[in-house]
């Protein structure tokens, strides 16, 4: 898969089958769109192309709103797209100036002139252009003018609940890891660097890898203890993770700490990826360190039972 920085650098293929959007999380609903694109590309001997925007448009259009947290970094999204089998990602820098393009200007200047779109697949109720004025009806009406065919993927549902990035964020922020997993079609994960900590876990008999996330916009699930799997140097290990301020020891800074089972390796400075399997409990303040140690023993037993199942 090729990642193209900006539409001006895109080497137009002969038969571009395109979809457009931010695709945060590449969730179950997104995957339906992506599979349709790759299917059409294969059928028409074409190339599958995702036209996406970075930074996320809301970071530019609402710079003072720091509430939006993303399910995937650009690198994570690119890796997910690679696993789907896409040929190209065209990464368009989203700026205030770019946001002023009308739907007609965007379609003509980007999709037609720069990308050379022959087929366009969009999701249910997808909107684009200045003031989100463009949509499926506009594109369908103007297929002849722009020279490409367009189709819309119907609203996707799981158990009669529509899938959206917002629903996934809500699930993660309430500890509903099972529903988040169902919506995503995989376990939610975070990637970060292992940094030095206070070494309290080691004193308790549960040494932890303190994980620092570089991207401030990446969504971190709610505080609590979790059963997790940890990827270290392409090897997968089982473990448990705590997210929170560690109230038992009067902590104040939110920490992300993973205890990896049966693991002795020094991994300071290395990057690891943690996948959330299930929430074990909410973060709790215990009366003393011994109470915390006893709870960690119970957490480990529960995590091992969850992971073995």
Walkthrough of the structure:
The protein is an alpha/beta fold and 309 residues long. The chain has helices at 28-43, 57-61, 74-84, 103-114, 136-141, 143-146, 165-173, 177-184, 200-204, 289-308; strands at residues 2-5, 16-20, 47-54, 88-93, 117-123, 149-153, 157-158, 161-162, 189-195, 209-212, 224-232, 235-244, 255-260, 271-282. Strands 1-4-3-2-5-6 form a six-stranded parallel beta sheet, with helices on both faces. Helix 7 packs antiparallel against helix 8 (177-184). The chain is elongated, with a radius of gyration of 22 Å. The model has no long low-confidence stretch (mean pLDDT 93).
Which sequence of strands runs across the widest sheet? 1-4-3-2-5-6
Instruction: Describe the sheet with the most strands.
Output: 6 strands, parallel
In terms of per-residue confidence, which ranges show pLDDT below 50 for 5 or more consecutive residues?
none
Mean pLDDT score: 93
Proportion of residues in helical segments: 25-40%
- The share of residues in extended strands comes to 25-35%
Number of strands: 14
- Alpha-carbon Rg, integer: 22 Å
H/E topology pattern: EEHEHHEHEHHEEEHHEHEEEEEH
Overall outline = elongated
Total helical segments: 10
- Secondary-structure-based class equals alpha/beta
Distance between the termini: 35 Å
Quick tags:
6-stranded antiparallel barrel, elongated, 10 helices, 309 residues
């Amino acid at each position: 898969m090729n990642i193209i920085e900006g539409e001006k650098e895109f080497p137009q293929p002969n038969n571009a089958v395109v979809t457009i959007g931010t695709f945060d999380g590449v969730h179950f609903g997104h995957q339906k769109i992506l599979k349709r694109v790759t299917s059409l590309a294969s059928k028409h001997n074409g190339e599958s192309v995702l036209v996406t925007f970075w930074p996320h448009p809301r970071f530019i259009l609402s710079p003072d709103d720091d509430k939006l947290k993303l399910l995937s970094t650009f690198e994570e999204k690119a890796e997910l797209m690679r696993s789907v089998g896409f040929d190209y990602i065209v990464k368009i820098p989203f700026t205030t100036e770019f946001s002023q393009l009308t739907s007609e200007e965007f379609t003509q200047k980007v999709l037609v002139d720069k990308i050379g779109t022959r087929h366009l697949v969009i999701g249910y109720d997808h909107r684009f252009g200045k003031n989100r004025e463009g949509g499926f009806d506009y594109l369908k009406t103007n297929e002849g003018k722009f020279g490409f065919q367009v189709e819309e993927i119907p609203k996707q549902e799981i158990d009669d609940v529509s899938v959206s990035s917002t629903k996934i964020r809500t699930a993660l922020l309430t500890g509903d890891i099972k529903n988040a997993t169902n919506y995503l079609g995989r376990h939610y994960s975070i990637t970060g660097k292992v940094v030095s900590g206070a070494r309290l876990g080691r004193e308790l008999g549960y040494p932890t890898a303190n994980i620092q996330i570089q991207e401030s916009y990446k969504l971190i699930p709610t505080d609590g203890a979790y059963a997790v799997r940890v990827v270290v140097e392409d090897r997968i290990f089982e473990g448990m993770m705590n997210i929170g301020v560690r109230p038992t020891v009067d902590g104040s800074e939110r920490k992300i700490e993973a205890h990896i089972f049966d693991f002795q390796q020094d991994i300071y400075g290395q990057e690891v990826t943690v996948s959330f399997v299930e929430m074990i409990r909410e973060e709790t303040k215990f009366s003393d360190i011994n109470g915390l140690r006893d709870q960690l023993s119970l957490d480990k037993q529960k995590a091992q039972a969850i992971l073995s199942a």
